[in-house]
Amino acid sequence: MFKALLISLTLASPAAFSAESQKDIIIYTANNDAFPLHQRCVTGVNLREDAVAWRFFPTVSLFLSIKKSPDCSDALDHFFSRNVGSDVTATFNSDAFLKTKIVSALRTGNGYSQVVSDKALATQILASYTRQ
């Protein structure tokens, strides 16, 4: 009985850790591929609101500066490169806020802009990446 309990606890722990490690981060998914954008990979984030002539409300986006490293900018670049032509979904705390098609590779070493569906969500994401 003790061995069964120990095995159950050992198997349950990684799942709980994984769920916690994916809280308050953007996760990109395409096909059966996923990239979690962890706080350690984001070196800066800025909120932008841009007025566009043909829209009645401003576009909200975040500019994310990404750490140049194999497990941050390089890994994110590879995620987008290997999924060109596929649909990608961006989620934050399990809520999808963007679904679009990847039409070309993305180079994130100098940062990139991420459109966000509304300002309240953008503010939540901003707070998550600035509190590290």
Radius of gyration over all CA atoms, rounded? 17 Å
Helical run tally = 3
Task: Tell how many strands the DSSP assignment holds.
Answer: 7
Number of discrete domains: 1
Q: Give the SSE string.
A: HEEEEHEEEH
Largest sheet: 4 strands, antiparallel
3D shape: globular
Q: Could you please say which CATH topology applies here?
A: Gyrase A, domain 2
**Helix proportion:** 25-40%
Under the CATH scheme, the architecture is: 2-Layer Sandwich
Structural class: alpha+beta
Runs in which pLDDT lies below 50 for 5 or more consecutive residues are 1-17
- Give the strand content: 25-35%
Terminal residue distance: 41 Å
Strand order of the largest sheet: 2-1-5-6
Mean pLDDT: 84
What is the CATH C level class, in words? Alpha Beta
Question: What does this 3D model show about the protein?
Answer:
The structure is a single chain. This protein is an alpha+beta fold and 132 residues long. The chain has a single domain (24-131), classed as 2-Layer Sandwich (Gyrase A, domain 2). It has helices spanning 2-21, 73-82, 119-131, and strands spanning 26-30, 33-37, 42-50, 59-66, 87-92, 95-101, 112-116. Strands 2-1-5-6 form a 4-stranded antiparallel β-sheet, covered by helices on one side. The radius of gyration is 17 Å and the shape is globular.
